[in-house]
Amino acid sequence: MFIGFERPSAIQQRAIKPIIQGRDVIAQSQSGTGKTAVFSIGILQMLETTSNETQALTLSPTRELAEQTQKVLLALGDFMNVQCHACIGGKSIGEDIRRLDYGVQVVSGTPGRVFDMIRRKNLRTRGLKMRVIDEADEMLNRGFKDQIYDIYRLIKLLFTTTIIKIETRCNFVSSFFCFKKMTQIFTSYYSSSARLCDTTSGSTRHDFQVYE
């Protein structure tokens, strides 16, 4: 499949490397600058393609975004034979169970269906290395905080990379507080510092402490 990339955008230049290095990252830039490709490339870089364990989980506020992420991952990972499943409401639970029991390396889903599959033990999380919160500000605005907390409570992971994607409607200050609010929910899951890769305010990189 033709992807259409000619050169990396500013956010791709700034965010992909720290993700591959295993840092927790906030990616913020204008719409259409390739933020989905940022975390997709990070996920593909760390996948063990010989294993069918689920190694990455992305959570999106809408079904459409979850399916878009799935399409980007499958397109970028075409020659890697990557298995990615969209685990979203409104589709067959039986199909979700069948695909997850067979084994997929990446799950892109919405909080409600993902939580249900983890609770049923069809989505096994012991092999997770990376989790992504897509449009974290929208997640909070839509009231998904409790569902996300329930998912992370079931996962109980300590050593994974976390990527949070925020849209341009947030400035740096609100991005910081969005991330801080997330860390207040998941204090045992995040490292003590994170990198904000922001191409919207003239700033390129910010390292800041997350105080709990």
Task: Characterize this entry briefly.
This protein has 212 residues and is an alpha/beta fold.
Keywords:
alpha/beta; 8 helices; single chain; 212 residues; disordered C terminus; Rossmann fold; 8 strands
Explain the overall architecture.
- Helix content is 41%, strand content 17%.
- It has 212 residues and is an alpha/beta fold.
- The chain has a single domain (10-209), classed as Rossmann fold.
- It has an eight-stranded mixed β-sheet, sandwiched between helices.
- It is globular and about 40 Å long.
- The N and C termini lie far apart (45 Å).
Describe the secondary-structure layout.
Layout: H1 10-20, E1 25-28, H2 35-46, E2 56-59, H3 63-76, E3 84-87, H4 93-102, E4 106-109, H5 111-119, E5 130-133, H6 136-141, H7 145-155, E6 161-166, H8 172-185, E7 193-198, E8 205-209
Parallel strand pairs: 1-6, 1-7, 2-4, 2-5, 3-4, 5-6
Antiparallel strand pairs: 7-8
Helix pairs in contact: 1-2, 2-3, 5-7
Mean pLDDT: 78
Overall tally of structural domains? 1
Report the major sheet: 8 strands, mixed
Helix/strand class: alpha/beta
The CATH architecture comes to 3-Layer(aba) Sandwich
How do the strands of the widest beta sheet line up side by side?
Answer: 3-4-2-5-6-1-7-8
Shape: globular
Identify the CATH homologous superfamily.
Answer: P-loop containing nucleotide triphosphate hydrolases
Helix content range of the residues, please? Answer: 40-55%
What is the level 1 CATH name?
Alpha Beta
Radius of gyration over all CA atoms, rounded: 16 Å
- The CATH topology, please? Rossmann fold
Strand content: 15-25%
Instruction: Tell me the span between the first and last alpha carbons.
Output: 45 Å
Would you report the number of β strands? 8
SSE series = HEHEHEHEHEHHEHEE
